[in-house]
Write a structure and sequence with these properties.
Helix content is 38%, strand content 27%. It is built from eleven helices and 18 strands. The strands form five sheets. A five-stranded mixed β-sheet has the order 3-2-1-9-10, sandwiched between helices. Strand 4 and strand 5 form a beta hairpin. The longest helix is centred in the last third of the chain and has 25 residues. It is flat, with a radius of gyration of 21 Å. Bound molecules: adenosine-5'-triphosphate (ATP) and magnesium ion. The site of adenosine-5'-triphosphate has 22 residues, from helix 5 and helix 6. Magnesium ion binds next to loops.
Length: 343
């Protein structure tokens, strides 16, 4: 039997407040929140009528007096009030109605965010009544969660591709040796698909349809010719709904420019590496995390274009959160990685 010496009324939490999805882990309990980063707001009163999965179900079919919004954009806060209320709701859910409060919270942020953006995220969490907030760079958390040896001399590389950001990081000695953050991700692929279907099929599809097409047909490598799916939307030229058939080749064409941008950024990071570090990365390869690690052929495409060995983390969407919660068991590393952020 395991005894806990911690105060039963406080609990340490880790929050991956992503652009598209939020995961919260509680120390000793594992994942406690797994919800889309969405809120549904009553236009009239400004009240939040739903958050997370419940708000997602309203997306695209919400009544006129309800607006569904993402409080986060490109990995940072887009609307601080909505973000705070959404996180407040998620933390209440994480506590499961128990009389706990969170003494400490570790949150991930993209590398290279401005001091204003850092301040905003601290304010947001402080406003929820948390006494200690630690900010950790997303790339480092992803590497730790994916099981890479972040505190060893040997360098390792991780690419986290989420909904709004792509974090490319090379890590050694518990620090980031080289990194690049692009404010692009899966949401931009969805937009590219929407634009493509509008142009080629003259149909305006919704966000959820675009995401579904990306998931079922999308491929970063050569797609299968005969793979097709039906998409429904609003006709551009005439009133009313219309249905069209979309192929995997088309989806590949629509998202390819975004994949190229990501690969170009990976190449730039590789070019900047000192020789010993480059040789470590050559030996160890790259680990992919984030939702876009699950896009078909993403690993193969990066591997083909960089000649590196590429593997997908075991639960790529949870890697960041798993890395954050693991930091509580490594206090020296936690102190080190937060100090490195100048916090
Ligand atoms: N099986 C899948 N195939 C393709 N794409 C997927 C799959 N599963 C999730 N995605 C995409 O991954 C993206 C979300 O990834 P993730 O949850 O890592 O983002 P996030 O952490 O919220 O965003 P960010 O880290 O950029 O702030 C979405 O665009 C989603 O459509
Ligand atoms: Mg993320």
């Amino acid at each position: 039997m395991k005894f806990s010496i911690s105060n039963p009324f406080t609990e340490d939490m880790a929050v991956d407040l992503g652009t598209v999805h939020t995961f919260i882990f509680a120390r000793g309990r594992g994942m406690v929140v797994n919800e889309p980063s969405l809120v549904a707001v009553d236009r009239e009163s400004g009240e939040i009528v739903a958050a997370g999965q419940e708000a997602l179900e309203m997306l695209g079919r919400s009544p006129e007096d309800v607006e569904v919004a993402y409080p986060m954009r490109d990995g940072v806060i887009a609307d601080s009030e909505l973000a705070q209320r959404m996180l407040g709701k998620f933390l209440r859910k994480a506590r499961g109605g128990r009389a706990r409060f969170s003494r400490r919270i570790i949150l991930s942020v993209p590398s290279g965010i401005t001091s204003v953006e850092q301040f905003a995220i601290r304010e947001l969490v402080n406003g929820i009544g948390v006494s200690r907030v630690y900010l950790v760079e997303e790339g480092l958390a992803a590497a730790l969660g994916a099981g890479l040896p972040v505190d060893e001399m040997r360098a390792s590389m991780v690419i986290d591709i989420g909904g709004g950001t792509t974090s490319i990081a090379v890590i050694a000695n518990a620090g980031i040796v080289e990194s690049e953050t692009l404010r692009i991700g899966g949401l931009d692929m969805d937009t590219a698909i929407t634009d493509y279907i509008k142009k080629r099929h003259r149909i305006l599809i919704g966000e959820r349809t675009a995401e579904r097409l990306k998931m079922v047909l999308g491929s970063a490598s050569d797609p299968l010719d005969d793979h097709k799916s039906v998409a429904k939307g609003q006709s551009v030229s005439k009133d009313g709904p219309e249905v069209t058939e979309v192929s995997a080749v088309e989806i590949h064409e629509a998202i390819d420019a975004i994949i190229r941008q990501i690969i170009e950024a990976v190449r730039q990071v590789l070019e900047r590496l000192p020789p010993e570090v480059a040789s470590d990365v050559d030996d160890g390869g790259v680990v992919l995390t984030g939702g876009i690690a699950l896009l078909a052929g993403m690993d193969a495409r990066i591997s083909a274009e960089t000649r590196l060995k590429v593997t997908v983390a075991e639960s790529p969407r949870q890697s960041v959160g798993q890395g954050l919660i693991a930091l509580y068991e490594k206090p020296l590393l936690l102190r080190h990685v937060t100090r490195n952020m100048g916090l």
